[in-house]
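Technical annex B. To support the medicinal chemistry partners, we prepared a structural model of the target in complex with NAP, based solely on the information shown next.
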Amino acid sequence: MLLLAAFPVSGSRCGASRRREPFMRHIAIVGSGPAGYYTAEAAAKTWGDGVRIDVFDRLPVPFGLIRTGVAPDHQSIKGVSARYQKTALADNVRFVGNVTLGEQVSVEELRALYDAVILATGAPADRSLGIEGSDLGNVFGSAAFVGWYNGHPAFARLDPDLTGSHVVVVGVGNVALDVARILAKTPEEFAGSDIVDHALRSLAAGKVRRITILGRRGPHQVQMTPKELGELGHLDRAAPHVDPADLPPPEADEGLEPGLRKSVALLRQFASEAQEKPIAIDFDFFASPRRFVESGGRVTHVEVEETAFDGTRLAATGRMYTIPADLVVTCIGYRTTAIPGVPFDEAAGRFVNEDGRIGPGLYCVGWAKRGPTGTIGTNRPDGYNVIERVESDIGEGSGKAGRAGFDALAAERDLDVVTFRDWQEIEKAEAAAARAGAPREKFVDIERMIAARRKARD
Ligand code: NAP
């Protein structure tokens, strides 16, 4: 039982004759990915010495999507973590790793301790396609598959079988591009990346020869950005193919917004100059998966229905065909994980909120607020906006116990909290274990992360 009265109370309103102590705001941010650290940065800048910010994470390592979502061969994007590190090392910010909200500490407990609890928990779970065969062997969602090659402890043991020749990737967004590119690259093309060793070995032994990317609508509806799409045209042993018949007349591109127009120009290029390389990456547009076909509990084919899209409505045509598939990865978007006691919008897969506010003292930001869209940078204004909102709600703070209260709770429950300094020791151990030319070899299970921290402390 948590006894708040037993904790030191900063900024107490009692004792009118005493000199008034300066108030302190106590902020808990749950999630240490881009949304979490941009929010911490905004809070630290807004209140300076008048705030204490605790950034919680269920993993002992920070940076969320930067570590386990961004593709391992996109190291320049990961460079943004230097900015988060600067925030993490500020005097008024601390990292509280290895603590799971909803398990080791409840939302209500954090609300009692902090003036504002801001959920920056992202969208770590897969949306399900919900068609027959979705739970067959070698059918994975992108959260799991990306987590596997990025060494997320929850997915490190996924062990996808890459020894078949045909892969089907569902969806035409940037995650589909990441997955197709990673599956197509040679081991040499991973030089300088931080792809984890188990994935590199499995990919090197893989036998993939054809990757079919299924888009239920057409080339004008792709969510792929030009830089990422362009990379498919420069792979050593793989080449993209687009069926010219799927492309609308060129003059139809004129009204497209500039980014999409560039992506469509790349698709036109893939259609006109088909390169022949050992691995084919086929774009199959107007194609909706209807059923995964199995043999012995494992996927062998995808049954696909041709669709018709008139610019507004997606219609089924009844024309079916099958594509061989030894492995399927669905890249159709993500969901936030529900937390006991927090209102959740099941259909949208995120917390119920009004411009970031869930209820008194409880907020959300980033993908947990608006769903899984936008770039990493989109989280920056999101973080600043939520702090503006918190500022107008909490004023100077209300004398809550804050981090001292949490520390008492953690001691009472014997929580093994990992600090940012501890993380820096884990980081050093990962850098020391890296193969030649790689920035790190990630620890892929929590026990080894904790062990690396202990070793450094001893
Ligand atoms: P996304 O961009 O929303 O794309 C999801 C794709 O799945 C869409 O093509 C969508 O088609 C399709 N889809 C959804 N439901 C489907 C269904 N039932 N059947 C068939 N197809 C279905 O999502 P994402 O690729 O997961 O990316 C998430 C966010 O992360 C995006 O903002 C993305 O740009 C970002 N990201 C960026 C990078 C980068 O910049 N390098 C890398 C990875 C991710 P419809 O359009 O028809 O719904």
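Notes passed to the chemistry partners:
Residues 129, 170-176, 178, 215-217, 221, 223, 225, 228, 288, 331-333, 372-375 surround NAP (CB under 6 Å).
The chain is about 30% helix and 20% strand.
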